[in-house]
Amino acid sequence: MNVITVKINGIEYNLKGDEQEEYLHKVAGYVDKKVKNILENNSKLSTSSAAILSAINIVDDMFKKQREYEKLCADFEQMAKLQKSYEEQIQSLKKQLKHMEEYNAELQQKLKNDVNAQYLEQKDQHLEKLMKEMEVMQDTAQKYMKENTEIKSENKEIKFQLQSSKYKIIDLQHKLLENQITLAQEKKKITLY
């Protein structure tokens, strides 16, 4: 416990308290200021009357501070309730945000699948077009193969006819040669007779 000597309105008092000396001096200074203020405003008052009026003023200050404190406590409680409400709203918004993020991811996947589906559809259409072109090419190829087969057949026939003609020519050449020999023999016989 601390014991200090303080002056209030020029009179020394011994103060005892568990608080630090600095705090006790501050309290005594506040009371001294109040007493001097009352005596300056009314110099006819006795010290005891000034002390009572100072006590009344100090208690008035204390009550006002108490009301301010209670108002601040009520405001603090209101703020605490608001904070709790805001925290609940934040949690709710976080849940909504998470839900929206999941929904967004789901939509992104659907969009990706749709894009893939469109891509596949385009590829299918391109493939279908290529298949039609291939069918046309196969038809054309079959036509050319048929023509080629016909030409080969005609070519074979022509080769056969050519070969037959060669044999006929050779046969005719032989016959001509035989006729020439026979003719030469006949001429020789005629010249001999």
How would you describe the overall organization of this protein?
The protein has 193 residues and is mainly alpha-helical. The protein has a domain at 2-65. Helix content is 87%, strand content 7%. It is built from 2 helices and 2 strands. It has a two-stranded antiparallel ribbon with strand order 1-2. A hairpin with a 2-residue loop joins strand 1 (2-8) and strand 2 (11-17). Helix 1 (21-41) packs across helix 2 (47-192). The termini are far apart. The model has no long low-confidence stretch (mean pLDDT 89).
Q: What is the topology?
A:
Layout: E1 2-8, E2 11-17, H1 21-41, H2 47-192
Antiparallel strand pairs: 1-2
Most strands sheet: 2 strands, antiparallel
- Order of strands, widest sheet: 1-2
Instruction: Indicate the structural class.
Output: mainly alpha
Order of helices and strands: EEHH
Please indicate the percent range of residues in DSSP E strands (runs of 2 or more): 5-15%
What is the count of DSSP helices, taking H or I runs of 4+ residues?
2
**Could you give the count of β-strands?**
2
Mean pLDDT score, rounded?
89
Low-confidence stretches: none
Proportion in helices? over 70%
| Cα shape | rod-shaped
N- to C-terminal separation?
Answer: 191 Å
Q: In angstroms, what is the radius of gyration?
A: 66 Å
Keywords: Cell cycle, Cell division, Coiled coil, Cytoplasm, Septation
Coiled coil: 76-154
Subcellular location: Cytoplasm
Pfam families: ZapA
